[in-house]
Write a structure and sequence with these properties.
Elements (H helix, E strand, L loop, with lengths): L1 H35 L3 E10 L5 E12 L3 E3 L5 H7 L2 H21 L6 E5 L2 H4 L4 H11 L7 E6 H6 L1 H14 L2 E7 L6 H4 L6 E4 L1 H4 L6 H16 L3 E4 L5 H9 L4 E2 L8 E2 H12 L1
Parallel strand pairs: 2-4, 4-5, 5-6, 6-7, 7-8, 8-9
Antiparallel strand pairs: 1-2, 1-9, 1-10, 2-3
Helix pairs in contact: 3-5
The protein binds ligand C2E and calcium ion (CA) (3 copies).
């Protein structure tokens, strides 16, 4: 009896899986189509220097302009891209697109604004990442220091020896590396000092409660001071209020990113904003 109940359950589960399997295949086909038909776009969110209010960088964030569903958030399709390895060509497109935009800025005379792009684990471990970065830099004549790759700490912890090699070769190109979502993974600052890194982005989960939670405030303060001792620049993510902004500024955090400074916006709007800020 138990056995037959078990097999019923299995059948139910299996047919459930079939439906979901179909949907996944359809989504994958749609994503492939999206890449070929230029349905992906990048929005850009400013990173502001807390000491003088200047925009020193922007982070490129992907969206899918779906013909029916409208603007789809990366949380809904990045995992699918990663599972299907489509993240490799899409990630290459992101890199190229960001470098292309940077070229238009340089041609308009905006210098010194950095561009950050997110790199997923699959991309980081793809043996061709370095070649792709090198090619994008060359073809868009991008100043190396203006490009920053954002990776999460878990990517480094999977295989620290290999990760160190990859980071060293990225550094040899002159490209910056930032640790994204710091505090949410399985590492510590003490461990991170082994890796050649330039910046650390404190996850928005900590920034969100710095005003109301004494323990989050302490974590953020300690992260900033340790990061500085290790020579890393610190970015506070998810800054939504002036109080959070002021807290980070007083703690000598270097940069802030979040809705309080600006939401992610399309290329044209950002370029207009940069042009206005310059006057
Ligand atoms: P992330 O790299 O941690 O990016 C920050 C996310 O927080 C973005 O969500 C951004 O819109 C959002 N955000 C910024 N400021 C605030 C704020 O003040 N409050 C709140 N609540 N949220 C804020 P988004 O654009 O939906 O991206 C989600 C994630 O998708 C990213 O998290 C990143 O992990 C991934 N992603 C985005 N673009 C790419 C890409 O081109 N390649 C890869 N591999 N992953 C990407
Ligand atoms: Ca990021
Ligand atoms: Ca982040
Ligand atoms: Ca995140």
């Amino acid at each position: 009896r138990a056995k037959s109940a078990g097999s019923n359950q299995y059948r139910f589960y299996a047919s459930d899986m079939n439906i979901r399997g179909h949907e996944l295949l359809k989504m994958e086909a749609d994503l492939r189509y999206a890449l070929e038909h230029e349905q992906f776009i990048l929005h850009y969110q400013p990173q502001v220097d807390l000491s003088n209010g200047r925009i020193v960088g922007v982070e490129g964030l992907i969206r899918w302009q779906h013909p029916v569903r409208g603007l789809v958030s990366p949380a809904d399709f990045i995992p699918l891209l990663e599972n299907s390895s489509l993240i490799i060509p899409v990630g290459e497109w992101v890199l190229r697109e960001a470098c292309r935009l940077h070229r238009t800025w340089r041609e308009s005379g905006f210098d010194g604004v950095r561009l950050s792009v997110n790199v997923s684990a699959v991309q980081f471990n793809d043996g061709e990442l370095l070649d792709k970065v090198r090619r994008a830099l060359q073809e868009e004549e991008m100043p190396q220091q203006a490009l920053e790759l954002e990776i999460t700490e878990n990517i480094l912890m999977q295989d620290p020896v290999k990760a160190t090699e990859i980071l060293q070769s990225i550094h040899a190109l002159g490209v910056r590396v930032a640790i994204d979502d710091f505090g949410t993974g399985y590492s510590s600052l003490a461990y991170l000092k082994r890796f050649p890194l330039d910046a650390l982005k404190i996850d928005q989960a900590f920034v969100r409660d710095i005003i109301n939670s004494a323990s989050d405030a302490v974590i953020v303060e300690a992260s900033i001071s340790l990061a500085h001792k290790l020579g890393l620049e610190v970015v506070g993510e998810g800054v939504e209020t002036v109080e959070q902004f002021e807290f980070l500024r007083l703690q000598k955090c270097n940069l802030a990113q979040g809705y309080h400074l600006g939401r992610p916006i399309p290329e044209l709007q950002l370029s207009q904003w940069l042009a206005k800020k310059r006057q």
